[in-house]
Amino acid sequence: MEKPIVVKFGGSSLANSEQFKKVKNIVEGDSRRRFVVPSAPGKSYPDDTKVTDLLYILEDLYKLEQDYSKVLENIKTVYNGIAEGIGLTIDLDPYFDEILKELGEGASKEFTASRGEYLNGILLSKYLDYEFIDPKEIIFFDTKGNFDAEMTYTIGAKRLDGVEKAVIPGFYGALPNGKVKTFSRGGSDLTGSIISRIVGASLYENWTDVSGFLIADPRIVHKPKGISKISYKELRELSYMGASILHDEAIFPVTSEGIPINIKNTNAPEDPGTLIVDEESLGEDSTWITGIAGRKNFTVIYIEKVKLNQDKGFHRKLMSILESYDIYLEHMPSSIDSISLIINDNVEEPMVKDIIQDIKIICKPDSIGYTKNISLITVVGHGMKNTSGTSATLFTGLAKADINVKLIIQGSSEVNIIVGIADDDYENAIRAVYETFMNGHKE
Amino acid sequence: MEKPIVVKFGGSSLANSEQFKKVKNIVEGDSRRRFVVPSAPGKSYPDDTKVTDLLYILEDLYKLEQDYSKVLENIKTVYNGIAEGIGLTIDLDPYFDEILKELGEGASKEFTASRGEYLNGILLSKYLDYEFIDPKEIIFFDTKGNFDAEMTYTIGAKRLDGVEKAVIPGFYGALPNGKVKTFSRGGSDLTGSIISRIVGASLYENWTDVSGFLIADPRIVHKPKGISKISYKELRELSYMGASILHDEAIFPVTSEGIPINIKNTNAPEDPGTLIVDEESLGEDSTWITGIAGRKNFTVIYIEKVKLNQDKGFHRKLMSILESYDIYLEHMPSSIDSISLIINDNVEEPMVKDIIQDIKIICKPDSIGYTKNISLITVVGHGMKNTSGTSATLFTGLAKADINVKLIIQGSSEVNIIVGIADDDYENAIRAVYETFMNGHKE
Predict the structure, then answer these.
(1) What is its EC number (chains A, B) (predicted)?
(2) Which of B329, B394, B396 sits opposite A309 (nearest CB)?
(3) Taking the CB of residue B306, how many other CB atoms lie within 10 A of it?
(4) CATH for B291-438 (3.40.50.300, 3.10.129.10, 3.30.2130.10, 3.40.640.10)
């Protein structure tokens, strides 16, 4: 039997009956699409409230012993509307009664939230005539609430043995005590990836409402080109910085197996979308740069100490101080007598001052200070690895746009260069980088 | 009374009587040159052995009870030759008898070595008719053998109070027990700097056999231009990498006082040489780049670990491992899932493998490897701070020369950019960087 394709549909792809019809067409368009992972219904219109959010409100009202009937009605309306629109005769009341019963017995917020996917899975399985499998039988978490890969890939995998076609709701699984545990927001992407690994999929199709990733943020760059192919590694470098179409952990289950992920558009299924593959599969057609991403609001702590690298405990002491404040170190460019600690935007100014005080006492720097409002921009592309002209093109572009470059870091990952600039230059810099590479030519 | 100028003369400036005559002319050319720090006589001809080296051999032979008369004769010949050439009537035998007496009483290697400067100081003081002051009365070390700034700048300073003109030999001082302690090789530069600070000099002239620093290594670049002005900070960034005309700690005593150092050529005293000043004194005429230096044979340990910066103990553990191996960390470029440790050329390959083994056990990376034979090149210049075009020019130059850039680090010191390349590309890269900046123009 041919290897299956796992298809995951996002909330907007399942927001209403019209979307359900598109989904059915897609699934039936390829007989290999045998495992389907649905999200909860998303918004049909921008002003809609998502079902998952309604479920959270329902749980709040219920526990506060407030009137929840209106909210429950809204949720029912969404599902009944879908059922009616796709011509499905199903009485959903027993399902809702069950939810209320569980709530009465003290069900968790995570249980309530997971019902969005659960009910959508029920509808979709009947509509497609696929077996319904509750992910509680497949996806497991340990007592600490961390994903339990070992149990999932043994016990969960056994459950899918011999299953021909199934709908498996996304977003959640089971704790050792059988209770529902959810992934973080967007976690249905992870479910699809885990299922892909379990069934040894040839491809994991992730259906959304966009035709894949764009080279740059469309809110900054006017109509940026799309990314047709990207490696797992490149995607990691990009996802880190910018808003993400795909949950940033979704690639991990499939990376080691080399299962490609195809980001597709439910509303434009003929678009090729973005294919996420391993490095080897990028082939010769890998473009010069793959994408540009960035983030504002970093803080840089700047330390001067003569011959700091000859004080062999210096770096360890610095790192211990950051650890004691529970701080993520993002980057650490250094020179002979100075070092910069780039920390992220979650660190408030008073804490920065406390950290500096500790560094003064413990590391005895000659001078120390900090700068706020630094943006980091990362330019990503396997194509730059063997092209000495990449940096030249990048910095020529930035120079022409009169952007003052404050930091440059390259050399750890071979697929990207990171530059630091003032927050005020951020949008101009992103545009300048995009322009320079789109107009440039790879040597 | 006008602030004095401290003048230090290197070994080649005092190698023979002809050089002594030039030194006298220089000292007498400006009445402010009131404090003179001599090195031991250097080589008159390339095949000569330096007096300091002869003194080391003398000490070896003496302690091994071997015949040392020939070596002693050679040393005497140097000094008597100088005395004779400059028309000085002096019987040096009592001085040599004293050295042999001290050796008989178990004098240290450092004592013996210091006699080169001592005897030169005796000759020069008589020749100039300046007071001779033994640096044992001025420059102090603590029991651990570290320079004792506090004692030097109080007790040593008192000794020079009211002294009008003096010759003070370089290179050594006294331990708390009164025994001689020397600085590391080239330490007379440090003596001159310390004396400059003590007497509140307006200028510290460091007389050598070259007319200052060159922008790039003349063994690589054909006739590079000279550096007319450089800041302390820029010099630090350059001295680190390349061979040095000035002891790399010599700037520290004068930096805080803002005393400029002028590197001058005894054989071409009219040449302006290189002036080392504080940043503020660089003025508007600071050129785009000041210098280029580099070093080969770095090792890069490359570590991949997904979301390493969210493992808050990761960096501290890495640093602790390096510390346990007594390793200097030079630089640490990082990306989202990877980090590179750049360590210097003193680390042998078996130790690199041991370090990697420890990192595997303690930090549990997804993958780890290392690359040898990486060169670092630093391009230094205050002028680049506010010039976004510097990087563009640099990388355009490297691209044209087809140099593959493996690492870039900028952002800690604002006065330099560091690039990493393969050792095989080193000379070509230095030439390419020199050419591109000499032919370019500052925007």
Answers:
(1) 2.7.2.4
(2) B329
(3) 16
(4) 3.30.2130.10
